[in-house]
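Inverse folding, one chain.
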């Protein structure tokens, strides 16, 4: 495996930061097209809890850049506009593609990243994204979460694993240079360790099948956390599942990393929930400790690999 910071640096030569943006989209399992309410763990902001609340993409971007500059001063870097909220390819394609193009013209942008669902990539959207990829780095993030369609029903995902495979196939066929990143969640209700490892193997096999042996693809891991005012909160409070303890999660993560080949890019090792909204687990809010534990895990693996 390779860490995302090293992956970006190998492409752009400098440190790269993603700036989260909101294109004003919703999801087909929220608006009644396929279901209502969204996935059971999703907040009312559709994973956009850290985005500046303004309709102007410019202001959202400027605010995100200011946060980066406050943390890392006097460092040469580039930015990737990251359309993160809800399903960023779901809606009027012409309008969305214009927003994507606008974001690519912001200062010091290295490319574009879009968070979406496997069932929300129309022919028109992929055609437009294909044109973008001819001149810019393009990253498409697919929210799979699990390779179990039964768990998919529990979390109200409203698409199948076949939809995911078709999306990976179509993306690599129509946009050969696209960098595909898949989201996985450990600790979903009812899932065993074997279920979670099966999800990692599934993602590895599908991406190698369509991306090829020499291509890079990405994975994002997160521990399931419970946010206020979600269906998941009601399930948690009614004792229908428990959240993973930190040691449990890191043990699962360690085993999952063993399943990845050397050209798999890990874009995230754990979740980063908004503190004011977290119900459980409380350990997920100790960001400094988690970053330290992740660093130790990565260093241990690099040491074992002889790096």
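Residues assigned per position:
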């Amino acid at each position: 495996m390779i860490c995302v910071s090293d992956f970006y640096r190998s492409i752009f030569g400098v440190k790269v930061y993603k700036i989260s943006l909101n294109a004003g989209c919703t999801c087909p399992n929220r608006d009644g097209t396929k279901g209502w309410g969204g996935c059971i763990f999703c907040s009312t902001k559709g994973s956009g809890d850290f985005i500046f609340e303004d309709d102007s993409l410019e202001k959202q971007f400027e605010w995100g850049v200011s946060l980066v500059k406050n943390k890392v001063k006097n460092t040469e870097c580039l930015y990737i506009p990251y359309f993160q909220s809800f399903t960023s390819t779901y809606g009027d394609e012409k309008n969305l593609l214009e927003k994507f193009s606008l974001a690519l013209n912001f200062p010091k942008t290295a490319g574009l990243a879009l968070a979406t669902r496997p069932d929300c990539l129309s022919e028109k959207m992929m055609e437009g994204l294909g044109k973008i990829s001819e001149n810019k780095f393009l990253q498409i993030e697919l929210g799979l979460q699990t390779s179990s369609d039964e768990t998919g029903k529990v979390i109200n995902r409203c698409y199948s694993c076949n939809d995911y495979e078709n999306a990976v196939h179509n993306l690599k066929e129509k946009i050969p240079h696209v960098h595909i990143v898949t989201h996985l969640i450990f600790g979903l209700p009812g899932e065993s360790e074997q279920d979670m490892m099966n999800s990692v193997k599934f993602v590895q096999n599908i991406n190698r099948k369509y991306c090829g042996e020499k291509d890079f693809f990405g994975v994002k891991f997160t521990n399931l956390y419970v946010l206020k005012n979600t269906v998941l909160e009601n399930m948690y409070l009614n004792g229908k599942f428990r959240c993973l303890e930190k040691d449990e999660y890191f043990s699962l993560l360690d085993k999952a990393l063993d399943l990845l080949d050397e050209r798999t890019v890990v874009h995230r090792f754990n979740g980063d929930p908004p503190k004011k909204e977290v119900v459980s687990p409380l350990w997920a809010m100790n960001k400094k400790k988690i970053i330290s534990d992740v660093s130790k895990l990565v260093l241990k693996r690099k040491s074992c690999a002889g790096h």
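The CA atoms of residues 67 and 222 lie 23 Å apart. The beta strands are 2-3, 15-21, 77-83, 111-116, 137-145, 179-186, 217-223, 226-227, 264-268, 278-280.
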